[in-house]
C-alpha cells in the first residue's frame, strides 16, 4: 500500500471529512495542511492572512507540505490552493496516491457559505470579500488534473460512497 494518500481539490469539497474517514478505514494516520499551518503559526488562517496577506499563509502552507511529505501510512488533506506549490509536489507524491475530489461550483459555493469553518479558514482569496470561484477553479483544475492519479466526482455521492470509491481504486491499483 502507498505511503501516503493525498486528497486535493477545491475549497470546501470535503477533503478533511473524507480524509478522516478514509484514514480510519485504512488504519492510517491523518494530517490536514491547514491544521499544521495553524499549529505552526499559533493562529487561524484568517488571522494569518489579515496580518501578513496570502503570501504569509502560502509560506506557512509550503512548510506544512514539506513536513507532511515525510509522513508514512498517512492520509493527507490539503488546502484548496496547496497544488500551487509546484516545488514540493515531486517529494509529496513519491510513493503516494493522489486523489482529486471534484465538486460542482454551485455545491461548493453553498458549502463555503454554510460551513462555520469558513469564517476562520477561508478568507476571500482576492481580498474583496467576493471571490470569482469559477475563475479560481478554472485556473486550478488543470493542476488538480495533472497532479492526481484518480478523480472522484463527489457530485451527489455521500461521504461513505466517496470513501468506498477511493478504497476500491486503491485496491485495484495494488492488484
Ligand atoms: C484555500 C483553501 C482553504 C485554506 C485557505 C486557502 C484556497 O482550505 O487552505 O483558505 O486557496 O482555496 P480548504 O480547501 O480546506 O477550504
What does the model show?
This protein has 175 residues and is α/β, with parallel strands linked by helices. The chain contains 8 helices and 5 strands, in the order βαβααβαβαααβα. A 5-stranded parallel β-sheet has the order 2-3-1-4-5, with helices on both faces. Helix 3 packs across helix 4. The longest helix is centred in the N-terminal third of the chain and has 24 residues. It is globular and about 45 Å long. The protein starts with a strand and ends with a helix. The model has no long low-confidence stretch (mean pLDDT 95). It binds shikimate-3-phosphate. Shikimate-3-phosphate binds next to loops.
In short:
With 175 residues, the chain is of the alpha/beta class.
Break the fold down into its secondary structure elements and pairings.
Layout: E1 4-8, H1 15-26, E2 29-32, H2 33-41, H3 45-68, E3 74-77, H4 86-93, E4 96-102, H5 105-114, H6 118-121, H7 133-147, E5 150-153, H8 159-174
Parallel strand pairs: 1-3, 1-4, 2-3, 4-5
Helix pairs in contact: 1-8, 2-3, 3-4
The structure holds shikimate-3-phosphate.
